[in-house]
Amino acid sequence: MGFLDVLSSLLPDIEIGDIIIGGEKTVEETEQRTVIIDSRQANGIDSHSDATVVDIAELTDEQRELAQEALLEEWESAEELFKQSTARDKAAIKTGFGDTAIRETLDYFRPILSEHYFGTLEAALHMHKQMSMMDPAPSEWVRKRRKDIAEKYDGETYQVINLCSAGYFDEGRYLRELYEEMYATDEYREGDFAEVFEQIVEHSPFTIFVSGGDHTSDVKQRIYSKIRNRERHDVRVEFIDVRGIGSDNRAKIDEALKRIVSEVGDFEAVVKNEEPERVVRIDPDTLSPPD
Q1: Which of 39, 53, 207, 215 is most buried, most CB within 10 Å of its CB?
Q2: Do both 142 and 179 map to the same domain?
Q3: Residue 182 in contact with residue 200, Cβ under 8 Å?
């Protein structure tokens, strides 16, 4: 069922023709049977003689869920999500369907990230939201969306997506704690966090994302490498998270840790998460890589 079909079911007395997103026209400027989606012009569903204005923010939870799923599906099928020409519509839809947590995260990081990385974060957050709605998202859909975002920004985008999916931007999580710790010092200057964040994206000093192409030996060597190089970055590395989704990647993590123990002895590592992603946090102060 397409978006207009769903909207028709929500508005049974209205024969819907055109649809306008974002309120570029007022009610008085529209033709009969036009639907305007714009949170600035209505409270819920407001019918006029010339148009029906829908404030999605004021719909019931059931109505919002139906309309949101249908609109995202229709938008995806048209492959419009990351085209530059639809940036205005994308922003308007986000106003109507805005997720409180996403808005809060964007408001927090907007002043402290570069414009480039902020745009990447915004796209990654909305991708992650769509993935959570699909539960689980098809692997081909995820691959294509990651590729779409990377083409719009650059290859480093993949690291931002990984950090976003892993929750490092969330309230109370590492990137906010890092910024607040930096900001509290007398030496902090505007732009300092943006510079540190660029290093995090470029070097990934505290995260290892295990993928299908990795071998157990690769995972082990990456752990050793992170520990050897952690003093080279401006950001203090107090932990190393080894992350992997799927039984194969989980097995690689477990085997890599066993090999490390057999080579250098015991070290401190805590399982922070099991499902759907295994996350093992290593204390780098307790692990000395072999020479």
Answers
A1: 53
A2: yes
A3: no
